[in-house]
Amino acid sequence: xxGVWVFRNNGVIQLVExxxxxxxxxxxxxxxxxxxxxxxxxxxxxxxxxxNILNGLGWERYYDGDPDLFQFHKHSSIDxxxxxxxxxxxxxxxxxxxxxxxxxxxxVRDI
Length: 111
Known about the structure:
The protein is α+β, with helices and mostly antiparallel strands. It has one domain (27-108). The protein contains three helices and eight strands, in the order ββαββαβββαβ. It has helices spanning 19-23, 47-56, 92-101; strands at residues 3-7, 13-17, 33-37, 42-43, 60-61, 69-73, 80-84, 106-110. The strands form three sheets. The protein has a three-stranded antiparallel β-sheet, with helices on one face. The chain has a three-stranded antiparallel β-sheet with strand order 5-6-7. Strand 1 and strand 2 form a beta hairpin. The chain is globular and about 50 Å long. It starts with a strand and ends with a strand.
C-alpha cells in the first residue's frame, strides 16, 4: 500500500493511496498482484469465486460487521478476513491476509 498522508483542516489525517502504485507501472518497476488458488491454479477474479472457495475451507460470511466490508470467519478460530466491498480495491494487503490464514491454499503472484 502506498500513498500520501494528507492533513485536513479539521485535524483529521488521511492516507490517500496512489492508484498507479497499486495497479502496477512498468516505468517504476512495480507489478500488479494476483491471488491464485493453488489446487486449481485459477486466479481469483471475483468475490463470488473467492467465497465459494472459502466456504469449502470452512469459512462463513460474517454479516454483523462493517457494511462496507465482506467479512468471513471460521468457527474453529478467532480469525476474521475483511475485504473491501468493491473488488477493484482488492489489493495485495488483502491477498496476503488470505494467504496467511489459509496456508498452502492460496499464493500471491506478480502478473
